[in-house]
């Protein structure tokens, strides 16, 4: 069976996938590549990490063909961080190389997998200059900032992640989507825990072979699990749409403990004032929101991809694809 299928007829689009080290950028890229290819969309991976070693998909354009971190460290005596900045500056100074490589991918969709050094997005102008070059090449860009769900375990770490995402948004001035990655780890622990895991609790009421006491016990257990799930979902929402009160609550707890034991330390009071200023900043701008990504759930991957596509108006000039080019579906 064939089904209607659309491809963009013109315009170049790319995602710039950023985020702290280990936040799941390369896994995100591979997941989107798989998803797009299954849907018959033409996508290419561009590797901008000169220290990368392994990829699920072979990059079509690879900074390592221009320069590698290993060479820079060996020949110029740089350390890993300085070496990485050197490599990216080298790329910008030889931008005609990238322009030439991109030149042959006229109507396609590129996914740039970036390195994990946070300073690249927050205070070095490297990414900004790269964006300017891509815009000059008539490319629509969307910044995708990945933050991993494990940051939620530590509120200070989580808020520093929120600030780094905000800094990237403000610095780059491009359409931007923040993604909370590795949600399978969170949802595996709480959100998706089956309510009726140890038996068909919901049907127990109808079952005459089960005693009334057992039915009551199962009903209570089911109610408790449903409440836990609702609580967890509500709590998670406070992290996906950052609730500044999370940070204040934590410091209030520390302050209360210190007041019970002795005088609060002047440092705690100073930190409280600082945190309140940060909270005010996040609240005033109210720009950062995260879309959760669970790579084990196709619906979640599709939702993230369409949010990114929408943000750069991908698909607005779609044209029906010719029937002979359509993929076959059984
Ligand atoms: N469970 C789970 N693990 C993930 C997910 N995404 C990434 N990981 C794991 O997290 C680790 C880091 O993932 P990468 O995709 O390499 O992260 P990265 O941001 O590209 O890392 P750098 O390029 O080194 O900054 C790997 O062990 C991945 O298997 C996810 O969605 N779920
Ligand atoms: Mg990577």
Observed structural traits:
binds guanosine-5'-triphosphate, 12 helices, alpha/beta, binds magnesium ion, Rossmann fold, two-stranded antiparallel sheet, globular, 330 residues
Structure description:
The chain has 330 residues and is of the alpha/beta class. It has 2 domains: 6-182 and 293-325, 3-Layer(aba) Sandwich (Rossmann fold), CATH 3.40.50; 244-285. Helix content is 50%, strand content 13%. It has a 7-stranded parallel β-sheet with strand order 4-3-5-2-6-7-8, sandwiched between helices. A two-stranded antiparallel sheet has the order 1-9. The site of magnesium ion has 4 residues, from helix 1.
Strand-helix topology:
Layout: E1 6-8, E2 12-18, H1 25-38, E3 43-47, E4 61-62, H2 69-76, H3 80-93, H4 95-103, E5 109-113, H5 119-122, H6 126-136, E6 139-148, H7 155-172, E7 176-181, H8 183-189, H9 212-240, H10 245-261, H11 266-285, E8 290-292, H12 298-311, E9 318-320
Parallel strand pairs: 2-5, 2-6, 3-4, 3-5, 6-7, 7-8
Antiparallel strand pairs: 1-9
The structure holds guanosine-5'-triphosphate and magnesium ion (MG).
Guanosine-5'-triphosphate binds at residues 19, 21-27, 49, 116, 181-182, 184-185, 295.
- Kindly, what is the distance between the CA atoms of the first and last residues, rounded to a whole number of angstroms? 6 Å
Instruction: Provide the low-confidence segments as ranges.
Output: 1-9, 189-195
Task: Give the distinct bound molecules.
Answer: guanosine-5'-triphosphate, magnesium ion
Judged by helices, strands and strand pairing, the structural class is alpha/beta
CATH fold-type name of the largest domain: Rossmann fold
Strand order of the largest sheet: 4-3-5-2-6-7-8
SS elements, strand count: 9
Described by the principal axes of the CA atoms, the overall outline is globular
Order of helices and strands: EEHEEHHHEHHEHEHHHHEHE
Largest sheet: 7 strands, parallel
